[in-house]
Amino acid sequence: MPEEFYRIKRLPPYVFAEVNRLKAEYRAAGMDIIDFGMGNPDMDTPSHIVDKLCETVRRSRTHRYSASKGIPGLRRAQAGYYERRFGVKLNPETEVIATLGSKEGLANLAMAITAPGDVMLVPNPSYPIHPYGFMIAGGTLRHIQTLEADGTFNPEAYMRALERGVMHSVPKPVAVVVNFPSNPTAQLADLDFYADLVKFARKHELWVLSDLAYAEIYFDDNPPPSILQVEGAKDVAVEFTSLSKTYAMPGWRMGFAVGNTRLIGALTRIK
Predict the structure, then answer these.
(1) How far apart are alpha carbons 54 and 69 in whole angstroms?
(2) Which of 192, 194, 165 is nearest to 179 (CA)?
(3) 3-class state of residue 264 by DSSP
(4) What is d(CA 103, CA 13) in angstroms, rounded to the nearest whole number?
């Protein structure tokens, strides 16, 4: 038998596992360290959320099988959030699905849309699931440099890098992943950038997967926008959000994917 399984052999070490290993090693040696690992919140989940969980878990129907795409009331609530926060109307039946955090949604959508050898345009640096979800699914990666040499994000330069990525990829890429506010760079994108990205995706017949997990973490009066605010974005884009960072709920594994009906339908089939 081979020493390593095929897909495992393709993957690099998981960065957070390496951080945890080093953390345990240094703590065992008596070192005082500051943890820059998984980004766990340093506050409790709000009490009204915990109280509602306690109330709900006592209901017998809670312990039955549920709907894999999320119960209707939950999907309606997410659609309501998008309308209040972004002014975006969503059909909770066809354009919203609940996920186990944004990470599971990204990974399962990668499985749904990736054929062996498909090329995906992914940011670099990036959160691990953005490139490696596609690698696990059998795809090929083309990394798009996110930052300039001085550490800043230049939207025009980034769009040029995407154009080069399409021009020099064989076969033609299937999808592009974006993540703003960005993990790990903390860079932001505005609606003008998203408008250019939607135009780019239409031109090259690409899907856009937008990770908006950090939408509610900002420090000025300009809340980060959604790509779905751009006219026609739902024709090419799906967006992922998460309760993990917004409500200090990472262990609850609760997120959503919303947007293009074909992509949401594919994710529903996989789930």
Answers:
(1) 23
(2) 194
(3) helix
(4) 17
According to the model, what pLDDT value does residue 3 have? 75
pLDDT in tens, 210-237: 999 999 999 888 999 999 999 999 999 9
Q: What confidence category does residue 76 fall into, taking pLDDT thresholds of 50, 70 and 90?
A: very high
Sheet containing 207-211: give its strands across: 96-99, 255-259, 237-242, 207-211, 175-179, 119-124, 140-145
Residues 128 and 61: their CA atoms lie apart, in Å, by 36
Q: Report yes or no: 249 and 213 within 8 Å, Cβ to Cβ.
A: no
Q: Give the C-alpha separation, 254 to 99, whole Å.
A: 6
Q: Which of 132, 127, 94, 158 is nearest to 244 (CA)?
A: 127
CA nearest 16: which of 132, 149, 165, 150?
132
Q: What is each CA distance from 6 to 1, 33, 183, 269, in whole angstroms?
A: 12, 36, 28, 25
Q: Output the CA–CA distances (angstroms, integers) from residue 261 to 231, 258, 264, in the order listed.
A: 15, 8, 5
